[in-house]
Amino acid sequence: MKTVHYTRILLWTPIILIGYFISAQIGFKIAFLNSQVSPVWPPEGVGLSSLLLLGPVAIPGIYLGATLANFYNNPHFQTAFIIGIGNTLSSYVNYRIIKRVTEKTDPLYSTKDLIYFLSIGTFPGSFISAVLGVTSLWYWDFLSSELYFNVFFTWFSGEMLGFLIVAPLLYVWFYPKSKLNLDLSKQLELFLWIVIVYISGSIAFSDEWPLLFVPIPFVIVTSIRFRQFGATLSTVVLSYTAVTLTIEGKGVFARRDASGLSINDSLIFLDAFLFCISGIAYFLVTATRERERAQETSLKSLQVLNELKEKANEELEQKVLERTAVIEEQRIEIEKQLDMAKRIQESLFPQKEIVPNGVEILFKNIPMMKVGGDLYDIVWRHDKQELGVFICDVSGHGIPAALLSALVKTSLEKWKEDPKDLKENLESIRNQIIPNLREHFVTASLLHLHTDSGALTFARAGHFPLFIIRKSGALVSLKPMGRIITPIFDILAEEEKFQMEKGDLIVLLTDGLTEARDPASLQMFGEDKLLNLVRDLRNQPLKEIRDEVFQSVIHLSGGIQAIQDDLTLGLIRYTGV
């Protein structure tokens, strides 16, 4: 096994070294500010694609190619040695991130994988390479301190473009299982579209006409016609044209200041443009590939079904009947388990009626299935005249969402002990549940009310604003900042305060109420309609308001069996102590 491993290293190292060296010379041709700083660094595309195609066996070839290319361009061993390390680390770090978050090597396999590639699969490695490379040039006096950050930005953006543009091209065209089988006419058509992309790019980046939009439809058509092959090739051609002409001071992105052409400022806008264009092309490809895979799966399923029909006989019919009986037994058992799960989930909601001083409070939850992902809880501390309310909505439906809502319930202990610090409690909830979220997310809100004074504090994590309908009928919305609870981003919640007055009505809800749809017209119930309904009924008993809201939503949906999401509504009327 080790012999095979070493054989692969010996085989691929010279190939990767040569490819890296050649691509480096291309990058050096358009270098500026410093002979080793290029606005586009194609070798990073070579390095990342080699790792994606071959794995870690490509590391020696990448390092040797990077060190040799930089030494050849600037015969100084120390800088070439460190820059080679930076170039190798940048490709390897991005490779490990892509492998970790996507569990695949093809950045254009699916829309989800593409989002990961564009967001976190290029930035870290580019930053590492820029820090090591620019610092080494500065340390050995190849770069003045005044130009450090200009060169750093150029180096960083060049690495990013190498990863974004060149790596997908090389991966797609050299991946052994991805074959472009085209007859001569199709090959000529692809060549024609690439020529058109080049010509339209040259026109778009000329100084004669403001026609920046011209290449976009041609890139789109090429991507749709030839999938990942057309998308990667057309974006590389357009990027090359755009970069070379912009560096020459042509086109709308060529920014000038008092000293003349500002390359760094130009690249800021150019990089954004190229990112958008390549993103559009890549997203078209991933969406098309996902649809084709779904169609292939459906076709295979249909073929299997036809084969089963052709082989049908009495024995098969008997087996079908037997299997149907088993399925019915399983269905009955699942129904029993769902009933038990429903009883368990109902126990997560407050079991005793809570009657705080100074407020009337009423909640109701109807899950889409027997169990759901909505949850609310209430804390009343009589000694301090404090009311705490929690409401959340777990993404998804059914048992998975119900299990996650149970997990959320267990994370509320700190909040129940001290419901006053809303931001800290939201972070505590997130820290306890994120190991089990994976692809799910949670929106949540926390409310704290001093019932004796009417002082209200509200915080949220991506949930609805807090709606307050004043006794006069005026609507107040509290919208403090706070992101949804996911494993990726912090909540960054803020608190917003409000002074309640006697007769004010608080409305808490989940999106199942506002997003309920008419099956015929697909018109949503909507936030405005719900709030107007509550406002018109604000002086009625809370039970009548609640019943009227649920009756209206269920009627619009076509009945209780037709609702498409969990429904939760909370009403709190401040009556004063």
Automatic annotation (TrEMBL):
Record bears the keyword Cell membrane: yes
Localization of this protein: Cell membrane
Residues spanning the membrane: 12-33, 45-64, 76-93, 114-140, 152-176, 188-206, 226-247, 267-285
The keyword Transmembrane helix appears for this protein: yes
Domain PPM-type phosphatase: from-to ranges: 356-574
Recorded superkingdom: Bacteria
InterPro entries according to UniProt: Bact_Sigma-Reg, MASE1, PPM-type-like_dom_sf, PPM-type_phosphatase-like_dom
Topology of the protein relative to the lipid bilayer: Multi-pass membrane protein
Chief place where the protein resides: membrane
One Pfam family named in its UniProt record: SpoIIE
Record keywords: Cell membrane, Coiled coil, Hydrolase, Membrane, Transmembrane, Transmembrane helix
Parts forming coiled coils: 299-347
Protein name from the UniProt record: Serine/threonine protein phosphatase
Source organism of the structure: Leptospira yanagawae
